[in-house]
Automatic annotation (TrEMBL):
<keyword id="KW-0677">Repeat</keyword>
<dbReference type="InterPro" id="IPR010827">
    <property type="entry name" value="BamA/TamA_POTRA"/>
</dbReference>
<keyword id="KW-1134">Transmembrane beta strand</keyword>
<feature type="domain" description="POTRA">
    <location>
        <begin position="275"/>
        <end position="353"/>
    </location>
</feature>
<keyword id="KW-0732">Signal</keyword>
<feature type="domain" description="POTRA">
    <location>
        <begin position="184"/>
        <end position="272"/>
    </location>
</feature>
<dbReference type="Pfam" id="PF07244">
    <property type="entry name" value="POTRA"/>
</dbReference>
<feature type="domain" description="POTRA">
    <location>
        <begin position="104"/>
        <end position="181"/>
    </location>
</feature>
<dbReference type="InterPro" id="IPR023707">
    <property type="entry name" value="OM_assembly_BamA"/>
</dbReference>
<keyword id="KW-0998">Cell outer membrane</keyword>
<dbReference type="Pfam" id="PF01103">
    <property type="entry name" value="Omp85"/>
</dbReference>
<feature type="domain" description="POTRA">
    <location>
        <begin position="356"/>
        <end position="429"/>
    </location>
</feature>
<dbReference type="InterPro" id="IPR000184">
    <property type="entry name" value="Bac_surfAg_D15"/>
</dbReference>
<keyword id="KW-0472">Membrane</keyword>
<dbReference type="InterPro" id="IPR034746">
    <property type="entry name" value="POTRA"/>
</dbReference>
<protein>
    <recommendedName>
        <fullName>Outer membrane protein assembly factor BamA</fullName>
    </recommendedName>
</protein>
<keyword id="KW-0812">Transmembrane</keyword>
Amino acid sequence: MRVKIFSLILMFFFLFGLYSQEGEWWVGKTIKSIDFEGLVNISKSDLDGITKPYKGQVFTYELYQELLGALFALDYFDNIETAAVKGDDDYNTVILNFIVQEKPVVSFIELVGNSKVRRSDILSAITIKEKDIYNYTKLKMDERAIRDLYLEKGFTNIRVTGSERDDGNGGKIVVFNIDEGRQTTISSISFEGNVSVTDKTLKRVMSLKEPGLFQNGAFKESQVELDKTAILRYYNERGFADAEIVSVIRETDSETEPGKDLVSLKFVIKEGEPYTFSGYSFDGNEIFTDEQLLAATKLKPGDVYNITQFQADFQGIADVYFNSGYTSNYIAPEMKRDNERRQIGCEIIIVERGRSHIENIFIRGNEKTKDHVILREFDIETGDIFSNSKVLSGMRNLYNLQYFSAIQPDVVQGSDPSLVNLILDVEEQNTASVQFGVTFSGITDANSFPVSVFASWAETNFMGYGQSLSSSLTLSPTQQSLSLSFGESWLAGKPISLAVSLAVYHSVLYAGQDTTGKIFSDSDWDNAEDNNIPPDPYDTWDEYETAGTIPDSYLMQYKQWGFSSGATVGYRWRPKFSDITWTGGLTFGLVRNFYDHNKYRPVDKVVRDKSKAWTWDNSIWTRVSFDARDLSFDPSKGWFASQQVSWQGLFPEIELEYFLRADTKLEGYIPLWNTNIGEFNFKGVLANYVGVSLIYPANGMNISDSSKLSVDGMFVGRGWSSESSSTVGQALFSTYTELRIPVVPGLLAFDFFFDSAATWSTISQMFTKSWTDNTFYFSFGPGIRFTIQQFPFRLMMANCFTVKNGIPEWKHSSSGGSSWEFVLSFNIPNS
């Protein structure tokens, strides 16, 4: 390769002389652009990651050699020639034009000898794909990948040889010759010398399994040593500090089953005697007392000696120093054994040194996100005393941004023993979300346009500066809307958030009427208790409450246009016990309803008043929240609490509704189990939520149903809806309990939920009316929850019921029992 590059450099001089105006004019000129000729199977965008850093730099031969080496390292090209082209008439800039000859493309992958493993499984395991550029290094890697695949299936004598040949059209056919050999299967697993632990228990901790209903019993040589370690760990965690695996006896049967080798395994164990723990002692600790160091341990005198817990305790003692900036201390365990009493103790030898300061913070892997966007999430900077707890807190903040799929910190020695360098390796993930949907409906209604379109775009890390920008468009028969928003979470480099939004919408809505029987006047509405004006066809409010709904034939249709704009500002504090956020905002809106006044008369006075002229709809609000969740978008432990107060109606006389609204939210997350099954992390989390919302009308003023609190069926009382008069009111209480089981961490989880929710017409009824008198709406069922910001949906099946006289009554009682219905909800974390 060195010879080839050197020869190309000589060609480079020749070509530059050929294309240049005179002499080496290109030296010292700014590289304006880098172009390619001869690309067939490789796109120019595939090379941008290599060439982009060189654009705008001053040309030197060293820089050119570095760029050429990077292009050859891709292993895409057999040959590269270079020409220099003037970038402007004055020869102040240069364009580098690379004429390339691509390596051949893989036209077909041929597998020879695979009779026991499917072709699709092998193709999935290898990196070479058809229509890829042929790469010899990948060929050798894929030989290993195929061998590993066969070894996983018990083919211990597998042999794989990869080769290539021309296809006659300039491409390559990749051939893998496979000699599968005989498959090796475990016939039995037994133990010798295990007195204190049963065979069944030891088999349970092993990864190798005997054949069974869900086990193929494939023998994997690599797993033998891992299982020996697992068995010893089991003994060591139960006091058997001297346990050892003396040998593993194997017997192979090649005759019982044609084409298979059956192997029996016998683990010969020497258990030794069980020990208890006699305690910790310390020597050399002056900065922290014995009590402070012991507080970081769990193993107590008299406990069964557990080597795994001992190792965790030792790390905890080291972390006491590490978290306070003492990174260069010498800390070593000196084990004390008393074989007569069968006790093991430990003296921790400590040589204390001064605190370490951070010399540099290096960030690697952030191609898009700016360094300052990452560094501002850490309450630590260059020159500060190192603190491991602050590093972990900063990592939590970064994960909550959802900009990165992986974050790995590392601490290395600096230029002086008292200095350390903090290295942050990050792996960026997509922060843009594009959603588009088309729904066909209403085909049987000739007056209804049968297509609904939804489109939205959001970027939460705009141009790498940590800003959010989003827009959405909805076009449907009953809703058309357009919205835009922009947010900045660190205004002027301070933990101050600022967001603005604009929206316009048009909706087709339905309302009850007051056109038959007794006609209620505006003064009747104003004087009625809690808007208790019955809609047609009912004469009294009691009749309406008993029926619960309005027949479709008595509903009127009206249209509503609205414009709104809003602005919010917030500030964040990050004490140790939780993040504290204060947020406040203003919303200004204009609304007007349209309908035929000669044909319709809504029973709701607010609906009527909003049809007379454009009406202001303004509010102001403030919220304080406390967040101690480990991850806000998919928490597994911690808690959250918030209190929001808003006031509707800013300008006297010109607005129609004036009321105070208070919303209280509490969340708690408890980890139930966390264990590994092979490579799968099986974890369960219990999530609990309680919310209370109250509306206080100003001076006894009545408010419309559209402004009241409701069981909406999507976020509150999932599976229900606000069609019934009993599901809206001025007081709302809701709870849920969920069992959450992550399936793909950070992407997908399976949940089981139980919801309960209730509304009361007035706040006083919430405290005076019996909570067991047909008040609560319950629902339960399974669901799938997506935890990525590009697809924040929950797909759920809900079964809904209420309780009357102590007896459950299903939502669709006419069907004779329970019935499931689909619910689409959103996974939007509280903030």
